[in-house]
Specification:
Elements: E1 4-12, E2 17-25, E3 28-32, E4 36-41, E5 47-57, E6 70-80, E7 85-92, E8 95-108
């Protein structure tokens, strides 16, 4: 099953962290939290991946863990659909000093 709703937790190399939900369906990743949206792509089969993820503010009111309101994360990671886990690390395009780590677990299969 390559589809699911995942709870994700993330942190940066700043003293900040956060969490949200992402829906992975047929390789597309769409999710968000109270102030930011996340979009990108992952493989439809379990394994390692690399790619870019767009993070966009949709509602003001909270600071992003990177200090940037809108950015692209250049990331590498691994997804395991059988165990329902995803992890990645990446840097902000245009600010390579800023690193983000993400870990997530599938809550339920997506329909």
């Amino acid at each position: 099953m390559s589809n699911g709703i995942f709870e994700v937790r993330f942190k940066s190399n700043r003293p900040d962290s956060g969490g949200g939900l992402v829906v992975i369906k047929d390789g597309s990743v769409n999710g968000g939290d109270a102030n930011y949206l996340y979009q990108g792509n992952v493989p439809t089969e379990s394994g390692k991946f690399s790619g870019q993820f767009k993070v966009s503010m949709w509602k003001p009111g909270n600071t992003n863990v990177t200090g940037h309101d809108n950015y692209t994360l250049d990331a590498t990671g691994e997804i395991n659909y059988e165990s329902g886990t995803i992890s990645l690390t990446g840097t902000v395009v245009g600010d390579s000093r800023m690193r983000v780590e993400l870990a997530g677990n599938r809550i339920i299969s997506a329909v």
